[in-house]
Write a structure and sequence with these properties.
Elements: H1 3-10, H2 30-33, E1 39-43, H3 51-64, E2 71-75, H4 81-84, H5 86-94
Parallel strand pairs: 1-2
Organism: Streptomyces malaysiensis subsp. samsunensis
Protein name: Alpha/beta hydrolase
InterPro entries: AB_hydrolase_fold
């Protein structure tokens, strides 16, 4: 996406989440988390969370709950498809199983 359009989004985004989640203990369990259907939007040009790292996260989560694997949907976007591909992302989201 053009830099000017990106900056309009970037300046509006603020980290509302404390950074402690990065260093805290993960408490996901198959019993508590593994029963919710999951869809992973793979951002193929993501430089914040590169595709190989996305693959690792998906693989680890699917390993925890092999009976409830991620449905994966690739988008040709960077880390913020809501900004660069809003219509495509909306089409994905309306098809997420509930």
């Amino acid at each position: 996406m053009p830099t000017a359009e990106y900056l309009a989004y970037a300046h509006a985004l603020t980290p509302d989440q404390p950074l402690g989640f990065l260093t805290g203990e993960v408490a996901a369990t198959a019993d508590r988390w593994g029963t919710v259907p999951r869809t992973y939007v793979r951002c193929l040009r993501d430089r914040a969370l590169p595709p190989p790292l996305q693959d690792r996260l998906i693989r680890d989560a699917d390993g925890l709950t092999p009976g409830n694997r991620f449905r994966q949907v690739p988008l040709d976007s960077g880390h913020a498809p809501f900004a660069s591909l809003p219509e495509e992302l909306a089409r994905v989201l309306v098809r997420v199983p509930t």
